[in-house]
C-alpha cells in the first residue's frame, strides 16, 4: 500500500496524493491517445489525413475509408487489388493459426508447469525449471535462423546427417504451412512462468488429499486444480491470443505464399508501402511511387489503413473483454509482467 | 493516571460492524489483554490503536493527546505481529535497528541498544544472521528485541505466540513479561487463548461480536462473569451449561431440565425469585462437580447429576473427565465435563457415575439474553 | 480397520530445503518402528521438523521411504500407491477441494472410484448423521465461506465417509481458536472411539497428544524417543528430553553434586532418593513436586507469580542459582521476593550430568 490509511489529512501526504493522481492521469492520457487518433483518422477524408498540421477531430467526417476497406475484404474493385487475395482470406489464416496455437499451446504449457510445480521435486525440478525459463533469456533474433532450419527440415535441423555424407533424413516439410507458425509457439516460456507461479500457490496438501482419496494424477489436475486456476488460464489465454494474432516477423520468415499469410503481416506490408514511399533511392523511388500511385488510385489513404488497424485489433479487444473478469483477478493474484 | 483512553470505537467494513463501540482505559504501566474468538474484532481494535486501520467513529487518546487521525509513524508505538513481520533481506541486527534508524537515532545509540536488547532475549550470538536461518522461537525474540530498543508510548502485541510450538510458549511468555516490566508502559495484548490471557494480563477484556463483554482481572472474570459468553469463554475446560426452567416449589427455587431437578440453596435462591417460571441456563464449572464420596457437601437427590464417562484425560494433577447424560433421562443426551484432583481409572470408561454439583457455586443466565442473573455489569452481587 | 506395522523406516531428503538451506546429512527419519494395534490411537508428538509429518506421509504413501517396510494387516504396502491404500487423511490446512461444495468434497472419493451417485449421496447422508447437528447445512456451502472449525468438520467427514482402514491426522486442530480447539478435540476423540479405527495423530502440543492418544510417541530429530501411555512418559521417561517435553509447565532441571547419599543443590543438602554414584548429576523436579517454605530448602528468587484462577493454582516463576524454576503453589500464595523450596524427594528424577541418560525415575504416582 502506497499511502498509510490513517492520517491522510497530513499536508505532506495530501500533496503526495494529488501528485500521484496527476501522474496517473497523464499516463492514462498518453496511453489512450494513439487509440483516439486511430479512430478519428479512420473517419477523415483522404486530404485531411495528409494535411500538414494534424487535425484533432475530423473536420469533414466521412466513412470513405470504411467503405474502401470492405472492398478490400471482399477482394473486388480496384482497391481490392492492393492485396493478392481478399482480406478475409488473411483473416481466416490468422484465425486458424491462433486457434491451433491456443489449443495446443495452453494445455502443453500448463501441463509442463504443473508437472514441474507438483510432480517433480528437489534438484530435478529446479534444473528443468531453469531450462525452460532459460528460453526466455534467448533473444528472438538469435533463434531465428535455427528455428528456420528446424521448420524447413522438421524434426531435424539439417536435411542430411552431416557425418554420414548424403544420407537423407526423413523430414516433413512443414515450412510454408501454418504449422511452421504454430509449432514454435506451442511452448511459451512466459506463460510457463505464470502457470508455475500460480500452481506453486496451491497447497500440496490439497493434491495429497486427492491422492489419498484415490484420484489419478490427471483426474486431480482436471477436477481439483483446473477449476482453481481459471484466472491464470484467462491471463495466459489472452496473452497467447494477442501474441498469436498480432505476430509479424516469424510468419513473414516461414511463409512463402501470400495466400497463407495472416492478416497482421499483410496489413503491415500495406502500411510499409506508405511509409517507404519517397524515402528511398531513385531506382526504388520509381517502383514505390508506382505502388503509391496504385494505392492512391484506389482511393486508399491512411484513413483506410486505420480502419484495417481497427479491424485487426477488434479480436484482441473482444478476447480482452471476455477474459477481463478473470484477467483482473489474475493480475491481482500474481502481478502481470 | 490514564495512559490510553479509547472511547466508543467503531469500525465498519461495508455494512458489517467489525468493532461496535469499544471503550476502555488503561493505567500507566498496565498490561491489558484483549481476548475473544476469531472474528470478534480484537485484532481490528488493535490495528486501529496502531493506526493501521482508520476508525469509522470514536476517539483514541494517548495521555492528553488525541491520536485518532494521526498516522502510525507519528504515534510512538511498538508492535509485535503474529508473523513477527521481520524483514527477510536484513540481518537480525538491522532488523532490530530498523525502528531506530527510521527515526534518525544517532549511530552510537543504535550500536549500544541493539546488542543489549538482543542479549536480554538471548539472541546476541545471532546478530549477523539472516532471518531465514532462524527458528520460529528465535524470530519471535527478534521481534521482541525490536520492541525493546524502542521507547514507545504504547506496546502492542497481535497474537505473538500463536505460531510457536507449545513448549516454547512458556519461555516466550516470560520474555514478553520481561519486556513489559522493563518498559513499564501501557501494553495491549491480543490473543484468542484465554489461558494465555490469564497468565499475562493485569486486566483482561473479553470481546465478542465487536463488543467488550467484560473487563476485569482474571479472577473477577472467572468468579463473576456478567454473561454466558464470558462464563463460557474463560476457564478450561469450559463451564457446563444446562438449559433449564426455574420453578418455585413450596418456596424453594428449583431448576429443572435435562433430566435434573436441582434445589438451589438460599444464598442464590433469594436473588432470583422473580425469575420463577422463566427459562434459564445453569452454569457449572467442571471443578464444581465432585465424586460423592469426596464432595465437601452432602450429595443428595437434589444436587446429583448422572453421566456416562466417554473420555478420560489424564494430567499430572488429576484428570479431566468427559461425560454424557444418560439416554433414558428423558432428554437429549448432553455432554458435560468434570475435573478431579485424583486420577480416574480407565475402568470407568462407558460406566454411568453420579456426581454432586456444588450448587453454592453455580452461575445462572437468562436463556434468551445470556445475561447473568447473579452478577450485573457493574459488579453488583 | 487394520493393524499397522511400521518397521525400521529410514527417509533421507537428497535436497533439504528449509532453515538456512543447509544440506544435512541427518536423515529425516532414522530407523523408526511403530506398531498400531487394531482400533488404537497413537499420538505422535514432537517439535517442528522432528519428522512426525514425514512419518505420516510415508504411512499414507505420499512419500517413499528409503529403507524399511510398512504393513497393513501383515500385508506389505510399501510400494502401493496412496490411491490404493485406503487410508483417510486430515490435514493441518484442511485441504478441502476449493472448487467444490462440501458435498462435492465428500463425493470425490466415490466419483474417482466409479461408484454410483446414489451410493455417494447415501453415504454422505449417513456421515452427516454421524457428524451431528448442523452438519448437513455445511455440505451445501462452498468451502471458502466456511469458518476454520466448519472446514475441519467437513475434512473429517470426507475421511469418514469412505470407512478408511486407517486414519491419519496431521495437526488437524492447530489452526483453530483455543476455545474451538478444546471442543473439537473432544469431538474427534469421541468419533475415534465410536468408529474404532486405528489412528495416527500428529501434533506438536503434548497436552493434545495426551488427550488423543491411547499411547504417545515422542519424536525428536527423526527418531522415536519413547512410546507409551501418559503415565509411562510422565513418571518413567526414557531420557531427559522426554522428561522435559512432557508436562507443562516443563520440569525444572537443576545441577547437583552427589556425595555419600546426599545431593547438594545451590547450597542446600537433600537426601538422594536412590543411591547415586558420587559426582555431578542433574535432578529434575516437576512443578507440583515442590514443597515451599521449608527451612532446609534452596533459596529461590521470585520473578513473578502467575495466578491461574481457572485451575485454582498459581505458578511461582523464579530462579535458583541462575536456573529458571517453576513451582506450583496454591492460588493465594503471598507475594514474596524470595522463597525457600524443597523437592518431594520421592518424586525427583535424576539424570547424568552430561548426556541425557536417566539414572532414576520416580515411577507411577502412589497416593496411599
UniProtKB/TrEMBL annotation, chain A:
Residues 91-323 form the ABC transmembrane type-1 domain. It is found in: Cell membrane. It comes from the Bacteria. Pfam families: BPD_transp_1. The chain crosses the membrane at residues 12-37, 97-115, 127-149, 179-199, 220-241, 305-327. Coiled coil: none annotated. This is Lactose transport system permease protein LacG. InterPro entries: MetI-like, MetI-like_sf. One of its GO terms (cellular component) is plasma membrane. Gene3D superfamilies: MetI-like. One of its GO terms (biological process) is transmembrane transport. Its main location: membrane. It is a multi-pass membrane protein. PANTHER family: ABC TRANSPORTER PERMEASE PROTEIN MG189-RELATED, ABC TRANSPORTER PERMEASE PROTEIN MG189-RELATED-RELATED. Keywords: Cell membrane, Membrane, Transmembrane, Transmembrane helix, Transport. Belongs to the binding-protein-dependent transport system permease family.
UniProtKB/TrEMBL annotation, chain B:
It comes from the Bacteria. Its EC number is 3.6.3.20. Keywords: ATP-binding, Hydrolase, Nucleotide-binding, Transport. The keyword Cell inner membrane does not apply. The keyword Heme does not apply. Pfam families: ABC_tran, OB_MalK. One of its GO terms (biological process) is carbohydrate transport. SMART domains: AAA (SM00382). GO terms for molecular function: ABC-type transporter activity; ATP binding; ATP hydrolysis activity. SUPFAM superfamilies: MOP-like (SSF50331), P-loop containing nucleoside triphosphate hydrolases (SSF52540). CDD domains: ABC_MalK_N. Residues 4-234 form the ABC transporter domain. One of its GO terms (cellular component) is ATP-binding cassette (ABC) transporter complex, substrate-binding subunit-containing. This is sn-glycerol-3-phosphate import ATP-binding protein UgpC. It comes from Streptomyces jeddahensis.
From TrEMBL, chain C:
Signal peptide: none annotated. SMART domains: AAA. Its EC number is 3.6.3.-. One of its GO terms (molecular function) is ABC-type transporter activity. Keywords: ATP-binding, Hydrolase, Nucleotide-binding, Transport. InterPro entries: AAA+_ATPase, ABC_transporter-like_ATP-bd, ABC_transporter-like_CS, ABC_transpr_MalK/UgpC-like, Mo/tungstate-bd_C_term_dom, P-loop_NTPase. One of its GO terms (cellular component) is ATP-binding cassette (ABC) transporter complex, substrate-binding subunit-containing. PROSITE patterns: ABC_TRANSPORTER_1, ABC_TRANSPORTER_2. The keyword Lipoprotein does not apply. Residues 4-246 form the ABC transporter domain. Coiled coil: none annotated. It is an enzyme of class 3 (hydrolase). This is Trehalose import ATP-binding protein SugC. The lineage of its organism: Bacteria, Bacillati, Actinomycetota, Actinomycetes, Kitasatosporales.
Amino acid at each position: 500500500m502506497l499511502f498509510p490509511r490513517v492520517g491522510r489529512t497530513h499536508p505532506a501526504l495530501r500533496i503526495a496524493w494529488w501528485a500521484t493522481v496527476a501522474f496517473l492521469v497523464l499516463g492514462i492520457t498518453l496511453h489512450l491517445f494513439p487509440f483516439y487518433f486511430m479512430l478519428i483518422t479512420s473517419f477523415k477524408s483522404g486530404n485531411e489525413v495528409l494535411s500538414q498540421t494534424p487535425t484533432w477531430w475530423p473536420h469533414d467526417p466521412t466513412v470513405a475509408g470504411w467503405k474502401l476497406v470492405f472492398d478490400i475484404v471482399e477482394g473486388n474493385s480496384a482497391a481490392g487489388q492492393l492485396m493478392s487475395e481478399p482480406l478475409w482470406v488473411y483473416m481466416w489464416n490468422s484465425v486458424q493459426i491462433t486457434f491451433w496455437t491456443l489449443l495446443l499451446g495452453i494445455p502443453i504449457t500448463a501441463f509442463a508447469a504443473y508437472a514441474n510445480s507438483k510432480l517433480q521435486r528437489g534438484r530435478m525440478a529446479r534444473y528443468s525449471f531453469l531450462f525452460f525459463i532459460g528460453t526466455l533469456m534467448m533473444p528472438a533474433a538469435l533463434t531465428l535462423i535455427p528455428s528456420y532450419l528446424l521448420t524447413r527440415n522438421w524434426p531435424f535441423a539439417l536435411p542430411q546427417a552431416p557425418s554420414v555424407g548424403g544420407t537423407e533424413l526423413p523430414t516433413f516439410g512443414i515450412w510454408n504451412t501454418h504449422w511452421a507458425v504454430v509449432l514454435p509457439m506451442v511452448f511459451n516460456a512466459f506463460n510457463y512462468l505464470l502457470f508455475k507461479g500460480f500452481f506453486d500457490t496451491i497447497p500440496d496438501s490439497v493434491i495429497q488429499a486427492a491422492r489419498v482419496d484415490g484420484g489419478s494424477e490427471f483426474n486431480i489436475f482436471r477436477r481439483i486444480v483446473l477449476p482453481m486456476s481459471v484466472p491464470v488460464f484467462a491471463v495466459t489465454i489472452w496473452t497467447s491470443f494477442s501474441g498469436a494474432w498480432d505476430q509479424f516477423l516469424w510468419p513473414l520468415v516461414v511463409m512463402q505464399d501470400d495466400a497463407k499469410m495472416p492478416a497482421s503481416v499483410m496489413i503491415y506490408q500495406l502500411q510499409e508501402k506508405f511509409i517507404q514511399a519517397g524515402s528511398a533511392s531513385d531506382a526504388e523511388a520509381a517502383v514505390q511511387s508506382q505502388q503509391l500511385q496504385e494505392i492512391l488510385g484506389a482511393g486508399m489513404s491512411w484513413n483506410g489503413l486505420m480502419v484495417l488497424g481497427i479491424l485487426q485489433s477488434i479480436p484482441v479487444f473482444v478476447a480482452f473483454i471476455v477474459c477481463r473478469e478473470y484477467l483482473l483477478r489474475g493480475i491481482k493474484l500474481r502481478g502481470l509482467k | 493516571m490514564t495512559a490510553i483512553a479509547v472511547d466508543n470505537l467503531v469500525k465498519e467494513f461495508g455494512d458489517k460492524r467489525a468493532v461496535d463501540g469499544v471503550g476502555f482505559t488503561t493505567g500507566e504501566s498496565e498490561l491489558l489483554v484483549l481476548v475473544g474468538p476469531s472474528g470478534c474484532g480484537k485484532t481490528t481494535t488493535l490495528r486501529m490503536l496502531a493506526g493501521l486501520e482508520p476508525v469509522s467513529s470514536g476517539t483514541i487518546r494517548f495521555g492528553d493527546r488525541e491520536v485518532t487521525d494521526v498516522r502510525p509513524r507519528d504515534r510512538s508505538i511498538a508492535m509485535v505481529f503474529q508473523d513477527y513481520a521481520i524483514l527477510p533481506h536484513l540481518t537480525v541486527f538491522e532488523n532490530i535497528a530498523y525502528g531506530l534508524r527510521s527515526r534518525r537515532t544517532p549511530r552510537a545509540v543504535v550500536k549500544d541498544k541493539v546488542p543489549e536488547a538482543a542479549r536480554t532475549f538471548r539472541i546476541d550470538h545471532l546478530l549477523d544472521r539472516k532471518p531465514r536461518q532462524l527458528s520460529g522461537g528465535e524470530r519471535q525474540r527478534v521481534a521482541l528485541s525490536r520492541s525493546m530498543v524502542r521507547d514507545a508510548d504504547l506496546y502492542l502485541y497481535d497474537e505473538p505466540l500463536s505460531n510457536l510450538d507449545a513448549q516454547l510458549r512458556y519461555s516466550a511468555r516470560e520474555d514478553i513479561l520481561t519486556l513489559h516490566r522493563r518498559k513499564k508502559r501501557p501494553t495491549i495484548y491480543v490473543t484468542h487463548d484465554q489461558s494465555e490471557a490469564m497468565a499475562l494480563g493485569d486486566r483482561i477484556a473479553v470481546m465478542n461480536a465487536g463488543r467488550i463483554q467484560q473487563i476485569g482481572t482474571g479472577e473477577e472474570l472467572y468468579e463473576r462473569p456478567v454473561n454466558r459468553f464470558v462464563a463460557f469463554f474463560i476457564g478450561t475446560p469450559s463451564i457446563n451449561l444446562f438449559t433449564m426452567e426455574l420453578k418455585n416449589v413450596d418456596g424453594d427455587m428449583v431448576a429443572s431440565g435435562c433430566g435434573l431437578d436441582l434445589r438451589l440453596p438460599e444464598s442464590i435462591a433469594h436473588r432470583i425469585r422473580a425469575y420463577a417460571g422463566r427459562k434459564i441456563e445453569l452454569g457449572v464449572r467442571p471443578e464444581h462437580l465432585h465424586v460423592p464420596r469426596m464432595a465437601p457437601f452432602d450429595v443428595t437427590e437434589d444436587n446429583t447429576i448422572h453421566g456416562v464417562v466417554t473420555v478420560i484425560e489424564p494430567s499430572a494433577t488429576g484428570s479431566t473427565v468427559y461425560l454424557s447424560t444418560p439416554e433414558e433421562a428423558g432428554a437429549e443426551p448432553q455432554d458435560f465435563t468434570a475435573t478431579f484432583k485424583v486420577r480416574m481409572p480407565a475402568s470407568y470408561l462407558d460406566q454411568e457415575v453420579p456426581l454432586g454439583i456444588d450448587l453454592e457455586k453455580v452461575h445462572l443466565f437468562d436463556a434468551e439474553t445470556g445475561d447473568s442473573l447473579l452478577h450485573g455489569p457493574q459488579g453488583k452481587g | 480397520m487394520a493393524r499397522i506395522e511400521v518397521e525400521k523406516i529410514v527417509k533421507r531428503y537428497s535436497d533439504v530445503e528449509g532453515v538456512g538451506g543447509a544440506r544435512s546429512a541427518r536423515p529425516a527419519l532414522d530407523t523408526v518402528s511403530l506398531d498400531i494395534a487394531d482400533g488404537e490411537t497413537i499420538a505422535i508428538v514432537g517439535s517442528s521438523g522432528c519428522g512426525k509429518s514425514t512419518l505420516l506421509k510415508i504411512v499414507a504413501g505420499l512419500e517413499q521411504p528409503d529403507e524399511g517396510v510398512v504393513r497393513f494387516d501383515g500385508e506389505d504396502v510399501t510400494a502401493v500407491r496412496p490411491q490404493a491404500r485406503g487410508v483417510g487423511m486430515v490435514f493441518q490446512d484442511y485441504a478441502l477441494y476449493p472448487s467444490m461444495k462440501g458435498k462435492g468434497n465428500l463425493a470425490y472419493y466415490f466419483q474417482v472410484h466409479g461408484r454410483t451417485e446414489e451410493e455417494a449421496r447415501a453415504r454422505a447422508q449417513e456421515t452427516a448423521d454421524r457428524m451431528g447437528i448442523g452438519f448437513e447445512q455445511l455440505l451445501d456451502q462452498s468451502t471458502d465461506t466456511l469458518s476454520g472449525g466448519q472446514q475441519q468438520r467437513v475434512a473429517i467427514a470426507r475421511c469418514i465417509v469412505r470407512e478408511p482402514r486407517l486414519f491419519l491426522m496431521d495437526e488437524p486442530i492447530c489452526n483453530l481458536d483455543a476455545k474451538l480447539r478444546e471442543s473439537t478435540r473432544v469431538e474427534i476423540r469421541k468419533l475415534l472411539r465410536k468408529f474404532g479405527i486405528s489412528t495416527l495423530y500428529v501434533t506438536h502440543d503434548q497436552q493434545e497428544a495426551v488427550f488423543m492418544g491411547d499411547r504417545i510417541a515422542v519424536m525428536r530429530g527423526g527418531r522415536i524417543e519413547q512410546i507409551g501411555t501418559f503415565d509411562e512418559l510422565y513418571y518413567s521417561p526414557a531420557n531427559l528430553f522426554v522428561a522435559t517435553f512432557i508436562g507443562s509447565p516443563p520440569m525444572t532441571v537443576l545441577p547437583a553434586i552427589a556425595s555419600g547419599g546426599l545431593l547438594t543443590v545451590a547450597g542446600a543438602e537433600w537426601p538422594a532418593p536412590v543411591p547415586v554414584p558420587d559426582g555431578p548429576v542433574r535432578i529434575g523436579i516437576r512443578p507440583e513436586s515442590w514443597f515451599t517454605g521449608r527451612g532446609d530448602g534452596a533459596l529461590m528468587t521470585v520473578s513473578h507469580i502467575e495466578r491461574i484462577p481457572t485451575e485454582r493454582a498459581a505458578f511461582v516463576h523464579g530462579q535458583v542459582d541462575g536456573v529458571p524454576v517453576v513451582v506450583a503453589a496454591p492460588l493465594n500464595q503471598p507475594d514474596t521476593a524470595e522463597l525457600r523450596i524443597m523437592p518431594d524427594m520421592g518424586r525427583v528424577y535424576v539424570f547424568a550430568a552430561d548426556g541425557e541418560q536417566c539414572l532414576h525415575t520416580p515411577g507411577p504416582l502412589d497416593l496411599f
